[in-house]
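Model it.
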Amino acid sequence: MTKVSMTVNGKAVSGEVEGRTLLSSFLREGLGLTGTHVGCDTSQCGACVVHVNGKAMKSCTVFAQDVAGAEIRTIEGMANPDGSLSVIQQAFQDHHGLQCGFCTPGMVMSAAALLAENPRPTEAEVRHYLEGNLCRCTGYHNIIKAVLAASGQDVTKIAAE
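Modeled.
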């Protein structure tokens, strides 16, 4: 067992992990942060996306010990300081960018990373950036709309797929 320490959602945390413990497992089982979902265990679905030092990363593809000392942000850390929804979370709610909700944490985390890099992406850029996130319930129309709305763009003219 190895002791790992990192900052998760602004709080210093530590725990004992085996060398093979994935970051997703450490977050969910070690810290009780179950908003980070694991849908495939093969890095295909994107439900496990978190931010590691500000960059989107699929947490099922990295060992917890490999990100020791890093700053991690999960979906639980996305809300505003007063507990209200972030702009991105609110846009997903307002524009029905979710259905069952399983993929939503990963989508929100990926969208936040995109908007940090590119504050006013085009529809094509949003679609390209979210290619690593799968939604099994719905088309991506409202997800794309939500991301564009979170960027402050007018989404009333976006045609349905």
